[in-house]
Amino acid sequence: MNNFDLVGEVECVWKIQAICGEGPLWIDSDFYAEQSVFFLDIDGQMLHSYKESTCDKHSWKLEEKTGWVLPRRNNEGFVMGCSSGVYFLDLSSGKRTFALLPDPQESENRFNDAKCDSEGRIWAGRSHDPEKKTTGCLFRIDPDLSYSSWDGPYICPNGPAISSDDCTLYHVDTFGRTVWVFDKHPDGSINNRREFIRLNSETDGFPDGITVDIENRVWLAHWGGARVSCFSPQAELLGTVKLPVTQITSCAFGGRDLSTLYITTAARNLNLDENPLAGGLFKVETKTKGFVSPAFAG
């Protein structure tokens, strides 16, 4: 039983056993899969979709580790963040087209997570792989494919998430166990970096992916913590969604009225006989709503 009244009971909708599920993205209307949640298996190099109304499942093999996919405003497929850079992806043909690499000097970095803001800019973290060096940072990628670095360095930048009014950006330092918050401005700049929350290293696990609902509550996945926590805009813990697996990676709102929280998990280095639901896709009905992810304007 969860301990606050914003949520119902958790359900595993796909026992897929992803090695590292990540990047859930709700697509309301799309030529690939209408009313579906898309998500990645970074380590397994797969893209998956789950159609809510029919429970239909589809998977596509990817050429390399990929941390995120986002829709494009021109409806020409997706933009995706991979180890070797940003690509445009046409799922129908399987063709991907190289767009850019923001840090060619860091050969061990890969894209980890990303979100679009209301102006169609991408905010994306590059993470060191295998998570030992502080070579990662938060990039902003503009529609003209120019890019700039805004926060770091980190071993594993995570999140990010942007408030519904586009005025606040949250960014996660996973190994620092900290969620940072910035003021975000119409010109795409961010400033006034300050600590939003810091997790307890012994009891909370590591902060991973986050999303924000229409009331600007922050929903945070705990890697190693077996839960998603919900915080007020003032960083007050409101409650938790407890899960039957430990490695919780990210979450996003979806469903016809955007009130279903979809949650991705991982099965990295776990015994699947002992942890059969690890790496599964979960959902929980809520009494709040999210908002559709803005699309990339490039």
Question: Quick summary of this structure?
Answer:
With 298 residues, the protein is mainly β. It has a single domain, classed as TolB, C-terminal domain (Neuraminidase). The chain contains no helices and 24 strands.
The residue fraction in helices comes out at: under 10%
| CATH class term | Mainly Beta
Stated plainly, the CATH topology is called Neuraminidase
Q: What is the count of β-strands?
A: 24
Strand order of the largest sheet: 1-24-23-22
* Rg (CA only): 17 Å
Largest sheet entry: 4 strands, antiparallel
Q: For the residues shown, what is the average pLDDT?
A: 95
Name of the CATH homologous superfamily:
TolB, C-terminal domain
Distance between the termini: 44 Å
In DSSP terms (H or I, runs of 4 or more residues), the helix count works out at 0
Strand content: over 45%
Q: H/E order of the elements?
A: EEEEEEEEEEEEEEEEEEEEEEEE
Q: How many separate structural domains?
A: 1
Spans where pLDDT lies below 50 across 5 or more residues? none
Entry keywords:
4-stranded antiparallel beta sheet, mainly beta, Neuraminidase, 298 residues
Question: What can you see in these coordinates?
Answer:
It is a single chain. The chain has 298 residues and is an all-beta fold. It has a single domain (11-285), classed as TolB, C-terminal domain (Neuraminidase, 6 Propeller). Helices cover 0% and strands 50% of the residues. The chain contains no helices and 24 strands. A 4-stranded antiparallel sheet has the order 1-24-23-22, with no helix packed on it. It has a 4-stranded antiparallel sheet with strand order 2-3-4-5, with no helix packed on it.
